[in-house]
Amino acid sequence: MKKNSPSFSGRFNPNEILLSAPSIVWLILLFAIPTILIFLIAFKSADAYGNISTHWTLDNLRALANRHYPMIVWRTFWLSCLTTALCIGGGIPVAYFMARIPRKGRNLLMILIVIPFWTNFLIRIFAWKNLLHPEGMLKQVLVFLHLVAPEQPLLYNPWAVLAVLVYSYLPFAILPIYAAAEKFDFSLLEAAQDLGARYSVALRKVFLPGIRSGIWTAAAMVFIPALGSYVIPDIVGGAGSDMIGNKIAQRAFINRNLPEAAMLAGALSLTVLLPLLIYLFSQRRNKHQLLTGTPP
Amino acid sequence: MHDYLVFDHLTKRYGALKAVDDVSLSIEQGSIFSLLGPSGCGKTTLLRMIAGFEKPDSGRILLNGRDITQLPPNQRQVNTIFQNYALFPHLSVCENIAFGLKVTGHRKADIERETLRMLELVQLERHADSKVTELSGGQKQRTAIARALIKKPNILLLDEPLAALDLKLRQRMLMELDLLHDEIGITFLYVTHDQSEAMSLSDKIAVMNEGHIEQVGTPSQIYEAPCSSFVAAFIGDTNFFDGAVIEVKDSEYCTVRIGGFGDVLCYNDKKLRVGNPVHLSIRPEKFAISRNLPEQRKGRNVLSVTVDDIVYLGTHTKYWVLLNDYRVEINQQHMRYQLDQIPIKHNEQVWLYWNADDGYMLERYCEDDEEMVFQPPEEIGDNPEPTEQHNEEE
Ligand SMILES: Nc1ncnc2c1ncn2[C@@H]1O[C@H](COP(=O)(O)OP(=O)(O)OP(=O)(O)O)[C@@H](O)[C@H]1O
Ligand SMILES: [Mg+2]
Question: Is residue B255 one of the residues assigned to a domain?
């Protein structure tokens, strides 16, 4: 039997299916089925005891028209976008620096980046609460430096949420960008300079495109969890800084209305999944074009 | 013709190591100048200083009379073909070539016209929109050349541009480079550790060793009149002999006694006197051997030797013959082939002869350099695997 015969290209071969079976099963059991369940529950109604009734309804869809939601969706969106931008903006220089220093220093930095994970997430968020507290250290220092007025609160506003979001997700941006930067061939920057580019231009035109896969991964790793964040706005955000995650939690735990929570969660998933699917689909088309030389 | 690129006592240290050690050179405009030397002798470092990626610890670099030592790389009218080509993987062939003009803000129409011209020059029109990762080695190399030439550099620096190619392609690219040079006429500074590459391409060669220049000259000067045992051994193969002058015959010739070898007649171009020590280098192709005693001629040395090893190479045969302590390498061109000819065999007693003019006295001599001369395998037909050495190093 010939390997790579043309009729095979683009199709799965039996070995591949066998090898990827465990991860496919995993995805189906732990991702696809729960997601479908959430979409299904979203069209049920809740009974008086907080259980899911057998009754199908579109009420939850109508409930999405809540007049508070647009503001919350907007806040969730801009906080997530800004968090992503700041994490990537911070992650690129760190990754660049790490990729250029000797290997020993890299490992040390890597440990420093990972060390905070040894402390429980909640404890770290509470630590931020202490820092930003009116009597907290950070606040005192900033007041002392005349950077904020003594009466200005640092806690319980969207900016506090942003700061803690960036703090929490920065490592998730650094790691994929660093993984890409480590593979980047830095002699390309010399080649660009050799051709007349200033160093800043070389960085922009050669380094950034060179690590773009890392940047995209970082964007997904930060943006998606940021969209769904709920603990951070809950602890440092206060009343006026709710995100969609808080609303989902409220529907599930306080109103005991799981279907409505499911509807909100489903809507959130769709806003994340749809663009991703469109992106993947367009990639596939490109790939197909590359392989066959003709558009499908 | 005047000195176009000048290195003025350049030195570059990495810690205690002098990667480039007090190098002074001048290169003529429009020529092909080669830097030739073994791995790690500082060729790339020297090139990187011209390109501006390394700052010399002392010394100056002058380009067309202007001191460029302190200029950043992007302001030098010098372009490099890197050892690994360093093509931008996210750009197509055409975008790679246009890069140098784009970043310096040329007009779109100019960029397009120049890019097309370059594509034509290196014959890559059909691959203009290919990804560079999909190119063959030779095509990558031509893309790199076009990308550098579009900047109209004063000097093109080529850092072992052919090292990654196989032999046949290397020979073809070498010819293409030569043609290209004739066509555009800019100065090439060509770095290589391959002596045949340097020989066939260059107007002038500088042989480097451990950071310093051993000798500068035309290919034939370097081959025929090496000034040190390093150059003699590095460029081609040679045989070294140690001795002393015992008699000065006339203004041209002297007799040299080589311990354990005999007295030989030698062309005395260094005007040595009786008693002076001599280090003699004689290339293998200058020797000849025969079964019958060759006729005596003026200036011919004849010695009786024993054949130790024979390697038939088609174009010529390599012999190693023994005379006391000495093991002499000989390249003998083939005479007219005769079927009934009885070939010279192992352990046979034969006559070794050469002309006194063909030996060359060395000004500088270092015994280590003898080790660079190729030694044959003890068992013929037994291929020595160089990979074994690699494993030991690791
Ligand atoms: N950045 C550096 N730091 C320390 N030492 C270096 C550095 N770059 C080069 N060297 C040393 O300088 C010497 C010359 O190196 P260079 O790269 O110029 O050699 P080369 O002649 O180009 O060799 P090759 O033919 O293998 O490319 C080597 O001994 C090398 O180890
Ligand atoms: Mg080199």
Answer: yes
